[in-house]
Amino acid sequence: MLKIENLHASIEDKEILKGLGIEVKPGEVHAIMGPNGAGKSTLSSVIAGREEYEVTEGSIEFEGEDINELEADERAHKGIFMSFQYPVEIPGISVTNFIKTAINSNRKAQGLEDMPANEMLKKIKEKAALLDIDMKFLSRSLNEGFSGGEKKRNEIFQMAMLEPKLAILDETDSGLDIDALKIVANGVNKLKSADNAVIVITHYQRLLDYIVPDFVHVLFDGKIVKSGTKELALELEAKGYDWIKQEVTA
Amino acid sequence: MNLKDKLATSFSVLENQIGGTDPVSNIRTNAIKQFETLGFPTKKLEAWKYTSLNSVLKPDYNVFAKKEKALEYKDVKQYFIHNIETYKIVFIDGVYSAQLSETSHEGLDVCLMSEALSKPKYKEVIETYFNKIAKEDDSLTSLNTAFTKEGAYIYIPKSKVVEKPVEIIHFATGVEDALLIQPRNLVVVEENAQVQIIERHQSLTAHPVLTNSVTEMFVAENAVLDYYKIQNDLQSASLIDNTYISQKRQSNASVHTFSFGGKLTRNNLNFFHKGEYIDSTMKGITILSDKQHVDHYTLVDHAEPNCESHQDYKSIFADKSVGVFNGKIYVNRIAQKTNAFQQNNNILLDDTATINTKPQLEIFADDVKCSHGCTIGQLDTEAMFYLKTRGIPEKEAKGLLTYAFANNVLESVRIPEVKTRINKLIAQKLGVDLGFNF
Ligand SMILES: Nc1ncnc2c1ncn2[C@@H]1O[C@H](COP(=O)(O)OP(=O)(O)OP(=O)(O)O)[C@@H](O)[C@H]1O
Ligand SMILES: [Mg+2]
């Protein structure tokens, strides 16, 4: 589904990703861990198509197609979704109106008519219920004044509405209380199928108890330096990153 | 003949036409002298520093339309707030259209300036209010005063709460190659009365149209006036709007100006306080493209204690459009406990667009709360990216962010249908389907 090879990406002439590779197949869950500043959010932004990052080398393929030249919205139309580590506050536009615009933009790209209002409402209600979100909450301005946890839950609500093929969840767990973590993880699991895939970026093993990964990767200094199964996450939790740094620099 | 000379000649013609019955004859004569002395404003004047009238004064305007053209309601329905009941005062090329209008004398007067000037029963009101707050040292206002002939006359007696909004619409049809229209409106809202007015100037022709409008409004004790200006004219039309509002104790007046169209628009908006506990609101959404030019020039004269004024202008400029915001707040020495707020936020979508913004606070009282904030920025790239990752294309994302930026100005609009209409005009102006109903 997603195949990244030797990816180099820079921002303002500073190279952040330095030859990164990863392959994600349909039905898989991948976890990416790594110290602060390693390039995890950069990787998700580059996959999602943030223009400020320049890909200087390597390739990103999605479903066999090189997507490097595609705009962020075109990547979304292909089924790529990114849950932001820091969701953007947009005063003046409600969550509901935002998601309606997003859904209909995606449908338009697929050559479909706007989703009928009643169908839209039904879907919104259903997904809000899945994530235990109060309908009143959805009439508030997008992310404006939302608590950290509310922002994250709202990201997953959008994911649930858009039903992407590949979801990249960048530290969705940070800011969530324990109950919310379970609700959100449960939501993600419910949306999981053999046809779609998830990349979870996290600092904590705890999330991986709920969203169980098939693979765990360590991203360090712009590269994937170690990959393994879920046991690797436990090992990182116990030992930190020093031993990896030593392995890398050795 | 240049326009100034032509105006002098036309003035003589008008005087002869009206003859000795004219109750405002002296005012008129003084005004034309005033105009002749001052001439058209130029960029040399501080108040016109960023707005040149040169190009709009060039066409050979007819000062009065000589030909007539009728319009069918169905052809112009779209310019009315047609999904609600309204009073209508409609002019075609400056001439009253009885066919399109719905005036009234039942419990109020929603009628014509020409009527008020010619009938004895209005004499007292005319004597009390006409040309009492319009600025004489403003040459364009004086020009309008000199040519006072037609416009809206609205008189709301004590305690009358008018249920239906009043629509004032001016159409220009292009029967003349170039037309100068000078509407003169008078609005009197007596104690405890309430009225809502919607105004629109709409050209239907590629021929140049210049409107120089003056509106005087008097809001008595405890009265409420809401005034909505929809400026979405064709590229061939320019507008100079001079609005003067005088408020008495505990009255509430609001003016919302929505500027999306026209070649050049200048809005001179003046509030004068004549009592305590007055509330004045000035709000605006301006969205410009191409080479459009809009200049908002506001003045609030806080002459009395315990009054409030709220200004919030949000503007978006694309292409080579130019905006000017000049907001003057004057707080008199005795106007203690004044609350005056002014906000002017601008977004430049292209680096070829320009905004000149200048808040002017002159505060002579010490116990006051005055604030002003002015921002000029671009759309947030982070927010753009966020929207695009949700599948919203660049153009729609821009539209949505622009809409989000401006739409809180609509919160204070008290006619839902006007709100919906403005939302639609915004979407239309931005060239996007925002994907939802407002
Ligand atoms: N605009 C920029 N200019 C310069 N450096 C940048 C810019 N944006 C990000 N960086 C740098 O890129 C590096 C990688 O940042 P990134 O956000 O991808 O890290 P991360 O792995 O997600 O970290 P965290 O765990 O703290 O979220 C950091 O050193 C950061 O300072
Ligand atoms: Mg990060």
TrEMBL record, chain A:
Residues 2-246 form the ABC transporter domain. The keyword Nucleotide-binding applies. It comes from the Bacteria. SUPFAM superfamilies: P-loop containing nucleoside triphosphate hydrolases (SSF52540). The keyword Thylakoid does not apply. InterPro entries: AAA+_ATPase (IPR003593), ABC_transporter-like_ATP-bd (IPR003439), FeS-cluster_ATPase_SufC (IPR010230), P-loop_NTPase (IPR027417). This is ABC transporter ATP-binding protein. Pfam families: ABC_tran. Keywords: ATP-binding, Nucleotide-binding. Belongs to the ABC transporter superfamily. Ycf16 family. GO terms for molecular function: ATP binding; ATP hydrolysis activity. The gene is sufC. Signal peptide: none annotated. PANTHER family: ABC TRANSPORTER I FAMILY MEMBER 6, CHLOROPLASTIC. Coiled coil: none annotated.
Automatic annotation (TrEMBL), chain B:
GO terms for biological process: iron-sulfur cluster assembly. Residues 22-168 form the SUF system FeS cluster assembly SufBD N-terminal domain. Residues 179-405 form the SUF system FeS cluster assembly SufBD core domain. InterPro entries: Fe-S_cluster_assembly_SufBD, SUF_FeS_clus_asmbl_SufBD_core, SUF_FeS_clus_asmbl_SufBD_sf, SUF_FeS_clus_asmbl_SufD, SufBD_N. It holds the Pfam family SufBD_N. It comes from the Bacteria. Belongs to the iron-sulfur cluster assembly SufBD family. NCBIfam families: sufD. This is Fe-S cluster assembly protein SufD. The lineage of its organism: Bacteria, Pseudomonadati, Bacteroidota, Flavobacteriia, Flavobacteriales.
